[in-house]
Amino acid sequence: MALRTNLSAAALLFALVVLTACRQQAAAGEGSFWEEEMDGQEGDAAGRGLFILGKFQQVVKTAGGEVKVVRGHRWKGDLNPMHIGFVSMKPNTLFIPQYIDANMILFVRSGKMKVGWMHKDKVVERRLKSGDISLVPAGSTFYIVNTCDQHKLQIIASIEYSQTLTFGSYQSFFVAGGANPASVLAGFDRKTLTAAFNVSGEELAGLWRQTGGPIVFLNHETISRIENSSSNEEEAIDEDDNYENESTADQLREMEEEEEEEEEDGDDEERPWSWRKILKPLMEKVKERRRHRPARSTTKAFNLYNKERDFENSYGWTLAVDEHDYKPLATSGVGVYLVNLSEVTSEYGVVLGGSGEIQVVFPNGSTAMNAAVEEGDVFWIPRYFPFCQLASRGAHMEFFGFTTSARRNRPQFLAGASSVLRSMPAPELAAAFDVSEEELGRVLKAQEEKVILPIGSGEAEEDGGGVGTMKRRMSL
């Protein structure tokens, strides 16, 4: 926790340094690094020192915008280097829904934007302006819209590198898309998807039309609908409900409650090391600090320019933002399930009975694995990888597993009645799939079941036998 908090704070400080440098450079008439071609450039990093990051990697390039990343370096066994990303979006564009394998703090360098992301089964939308920072948790599906019709949107992002994915600086998993970019949905076979969405193969094929890349232009009608659409932007979210991340006070309180339960069970023996006696002074200090600290929602943005400067003299000024100013900086990565996505943990499973299939999808939308499993087989799912389990027809599949985290899972799903796609605003999602809102609605609302979905009788007949829609199930 301390390490991540420190990294997050460092990322914000770095963003401020970059911002200052950009303004000074522009004032001097030297141009802006946003307009330079930096793909593959090494710069002078090799000759300037060990801690100079000089290479920009272009990870997204479309007519609507681009994303470039400067990779951090591992240092003395550090498994979580910080990377810095630069996002540039032209007016009236959409960065289509996706999730990445790292916490990402967005800093709006210039322009205005609308960002939406999943927070506990709901879409939270925020309108950000220059100077705002906002956290998008790892694994949380998000999208960005530049609704301005005149100015570019420029974002600096700190990216906390995932420990388990080694494909590059970070990995995007596109929820929407088509031919370009490929949606992670495309990695599942047709029978799985038609059953999951409860539509025909022809209807499903209509979703794969997008060819504009990850950043696409929006027409004026869509922009108008987005601007006028209602959102839960002002929805109050409990300050203490911190992405399931317990505060120190919460943990201490839990320890006190456990002791009280033990006493109720009959253990009345006086113990000199009683948790209540030991922790009471600390609890009082925590409560006192909370009383004097202004509350900030975990989903609210924080504007750097509105914060009081920490130091100022005739030659300049400084300010810093930490978890006490902006509570999300104290949080760790929060993952989701996506048909099922393994969350912030890797999963290890043992098939206890029956047989079936395990399907796993790569971030690029291709199939990573489609394997038959039976009793006694052991499997594991890398964190953030989409996957599903299918039981064999006429049988069941029972499996038991471990995860690499003891924290509560809060799964989210792509298919079925509880699909994350149903929660997302129709204009943005339809534009991302390049289909009409009506067509998208028919596909997304056709399946009435959720979480564990039946294979339809039509699919069973195509497979060569078996009737009864509920005999073969798949966990999505």
UniProtKB/TrEMBL annotation:
Instruction: Using the record, list the residue span of the signal peptide; answer none if the entry has no such feature.
Output: 1-28
Q: Where is the Cupin type-1 domain?
A: 51-205, 302-441
Task: Tell me if Signal is a UniProt keyword of this record.
Answer: yes
Does Signal appear among the keywords? yes
From start to end residue, where is composition biased (Acidic residues)? 232-244, 255-270
InterPro entries linked: Cupin_1, RmlC-like_jellyroll, RmlC_Cupin_sf, Seed_Storage-Functional
Question: Quick one: where's region Disordered?
Answer: 227-273, 457-476
**Keywords for this entry?**
Signal
Its protein name is Vicilin-like antimicrobial peptides 2-2
